[in-house]
Amino acid sequence: MKETNLTINNCSYHVRDSKTGHSSVLLLHGWPDDGSVWKYQTPALIDAGYRVICIDWLGHGKSEKTEDVSKYTLSSLSQDIATLINLLGLNKVHCVAHDYGAVVAWEFVEKYPEYLLSYTALSVGHPWVLVQNLSLESLVKSWYLLFNPLPISIPLYRAMDGLFFKWVLRSHPDRDTIVKKFLRDRNPFYIQVWEKANPVIPVIASAFLDKKSKPNPIKVPTLGVWSSQDSFMAEAQIKQSAALIESEWKYIKISNSNHWLQLEKPKEFNELLLTWLDQHSASQ
Hints:
Blueprint: E1 2-8, E2 11-17, E3 24-28, H1 41-47, E4 51-56, H2 74-87, E5 93-98, H3 100-111, E6 116-122, H4 127-132, H5 136-141, H6 144-147, H7 153-168, H8 175-184, H9 190-197, H10 200-209, E7 222-227, H11 236-239, E8 249-254, H12 261-264, H13 266-279
Helix pairs in contact: 2-3, 7-8
């Protein structure tokens, strides 16, 4: 993987790119990770002949730590992905996204289907489905959407050598590394920037006031993958995303795994991912 920095929307994105392959796969990480969360997928994809492009989102990893909240809206970030694909001179890509990366990717897939061969969403279904089908289970699991933007969140995550943050990330295989990095960071605004840029309460209110409104249908072959012990996302929000897919839809549940399934069950996930990509690949 060759590392470079690309200027997109007047900000510097850190990009790792294997440069060669018969089809391109774009990997989008979520909270509170960076591109290293795909450490088991990158070599498997390259060995299978794919070109792999892996970014750090703004505010994360080695990308620019801009504090301009407008740069982190779903609309802005999805447009950044389209710009990235153009800058790399690609035609169409496979998009594989997890957690908040998947939230952005649903927006990207809806608005820019012409850039995509396929989409794989890990853990997170379409945001419209999530807010339309709120349940006690989903509210309990998604508490962080309301907590993270609060002024108290970062101090509480820092308290007692990150005790609460360690509990939140208890199912993350790389928890200790992430917590140590967070505690060293003097201004870890990336912890709350997703929710600050995309506040959930107005979205929920709008959904309840206008039950009949629906987003544009997804016209890209889509694979949804969820893990049976996910601590953050309920199964219904990803299974019911099928209602918004006009193209091919496939749903797979991985057993005995929590939210970071690509790290916990890399062999099982890599096998199903490669099967899916091979079925939807084309020369670039």
